[in-house]
Amino acid sequence: MDKGRTILKQAQFALTIERLCHQLIEEYDDFSNACLIGIQPRGILLANRIHQRLLNILSIPHIEYGKLDITFYRDDFRTREKPLAASVTEIDFIVEDKKVILIDDVLYTGRTIQAALTALQHYGRPKQVELVALVDRRFNRHLPIQSDYIGVTIDSLDEAYVKVEWASINGQDRVLLFGNKNS
Question: In what order do the strands lie in the sheet with 65-68?
Fold first, then answer.
């Protein structure tokens, strides 16, 4: 893959996460009737960061937080060329009557979120579900799904590819845009 164009550099990346956290605090206060759920595998990287930052900002010991695997809830899991590897779901609470904040790194077609909403039903019926996305590719939706909290919006062609890099994996936090998956 070529170098790609940087959409968010490290400082902007950190500021974007900080802004998302403060927007969530404005809406959910102390998160007493809310929970965070990161979508496996890439959404948990953002969810981990948001969860930790919220605990630090609010100086509280706990916000309910889970990790949801949606592998076998996807409408395309049988059409893949190679077998999919499922991640572990780690939700040790019921979402019944709670405000659920789903977190994913990139909102593209909406299919991942649709699968997450279906998988979430196994943990109760939430009072409300909202979505946090670090990157919203708003012109590429296949389903009528939108994010409630958006880090950055990228208007790009369907052939473009967005990659979110994390310091813990890639050495730095940043968002890149490539001309296509094969560039």
Answer: 65-68, 34-39, 99-107, 128-136, 149-153
Edge to edge, the sheet with strand 161-165 lists 5-8, 174-178, 161-165
> Which residue from 102, 107, 105 is spatially nearest to 156, judged by alpha carbons?
107
Fold of 28-155: Rossmann fold (3.40.50)
Is the dihedral angle over the CA atoms 157, 16, 33, 65 positive or is it negative? positive
Q: Global pTM?
A: 0.92
In the chain, where are the structural domains located?
28-155
pLDDT of amino acid 76 = 67
Q: How far apart are CA 169 and CA 64, in angstroms?
A: 25
What's the burial of 115, exposed, middle or buried (CB within 10 Å: 0-12/13-18/19+)?
buried
